[in-house]
């Protein structure tokens, strides 16, 4: 365990059963052993609540559409919805009320209660807190194939830390929102209620000497997003909107004049 690192700081569900056992694990260690962890969780399930077939367990209240591909070990919790065309592999655990849409690929991940992957998402080797929402096309990358050294690094307290693994996607805190077509590079750590804007690329493994990234970190830490509901992650460094700039502006006078041939009163 890394000093000062607690999975509950990101996902409160790790503070209670059935995930309490793994609360003090580093997220990249947890997903690296996802098949074993899910297998252990599966062994404690009741056949009265779950339809269990080998290393696949689907809660009897869950809905799995025809055409979904399910590969174990896998646990699909109460009230989950898995759409046709979804592909789950490599050891996954879905908490209660999760939604996995069409065209979604989920690999070696833990998705906590109430989280949704809308459609056409890829999430690999990741931990998603409760109530996380991915809009269409947003993805979590899990491998640095652009580098000769593929080891994934994360930033803890502003310090670049080696994980010792080549496959780790993200740890995403409770209630976070990932916009459509956003891309999270390997090693992302997002605090609860984080927001990544649509079409943004978030890569936290950038040289600390990069002045643009240093400024971004400072602003993201100090400035809430507009209307003050969540921490802004991946948002552009733009000035706060002023009332005069938000108010619709009148079009030029010429646009108020009646066009030739128009029906209605003239000027």
The main β sheet shows up as: 8 strands, mixed
Question: What is the overall shape?
Answer: globular
Q: Report helical residue fraction.
A: 10-25%
Q: Assembly type of the shown chains? A: single chain
Which residues form runs of ≥5 with pLDDT under 50? 222-267
| Proportion of strand residues | 15-25%
Beta strand count: 25
Question: What is the number of helical segments per DSSP (H or I, 4+ residues)?
Answer: 4
Main sheet: which strands, in order across?
1-2-5-8-11-14-19-22
From the N-terminal CA to the C-terminal CA, the straight-line distance is: 75 Å
Describe the structure.
With 267 residues, this protein is α/β, with parallel strands linked by helices. The chain has four helices and 25 strands. The strands form four sheets. It has an eight-stranded mixed β-sheet with strand order 1-2-5-8-11-14-19-22. Strands 3-6-9-12-15-20-23-25 form an eight-stranded parallel β-sheet, with no helix packed on it. The longest helix has 12 residues, at 211-222. The relative contact order is 0.11. The model is unreliable at 222-267 (pLDDT under 50).
């Amino acid at each position: 365990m890394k000093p000062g690192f607690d999975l509950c700081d990101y996902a409160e569900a790790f503070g209670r059963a059935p995930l309490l056992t793994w609360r003090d694990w580093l997220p990249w260690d947890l997903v690296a052993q996802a098949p074993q962890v899910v297998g252990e969780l599966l062994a404690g399930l009741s056949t009265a609540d779950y339809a269990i077939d080998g290393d696949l367990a689907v809660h009897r209240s869950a809905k799995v559409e025809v055409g979904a591909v399910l590969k174990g070990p896998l646990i699909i919790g109460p009230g989950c919805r898995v759409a046709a065309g979804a592909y789950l592999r490599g050891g996954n655990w879905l908490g209660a009320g999760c939604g996995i849409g069409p065209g979604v690929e989920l690999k070696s991940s833990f998705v906590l209660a109430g989280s949704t992957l809308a459609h056409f998402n890829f999430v690999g080797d990741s931990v998603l807190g409760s109530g996380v929402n991915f809009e269409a096309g947003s993805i979590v990358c899990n491998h640095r194939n652009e580098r000769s050294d593929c080891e994934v690094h994360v930033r803890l307290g502003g310090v670049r830390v080696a994980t010792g693994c080549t496959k780790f996607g993200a740890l995403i805190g409770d209630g976070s929102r990932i916009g459509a077509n956003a891309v999270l590079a390997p090693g992302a750590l997002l605090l609860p209620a984080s927001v990544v804007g649509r079409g943004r690329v978030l890569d936290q493994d950038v040289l600390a000497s990069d002045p643009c990234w240093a400024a971004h970190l400072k602003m993201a830490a100090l400035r809430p997003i507009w209307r003050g509901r969540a921490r802004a992650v991946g948002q552009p460094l733009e000035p706060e909107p002023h009332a005069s700039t938000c108010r619709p502006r009148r079009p030029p006078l010429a646009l108020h004049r009646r066009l030739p041939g128009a029906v209605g009163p003239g000027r």
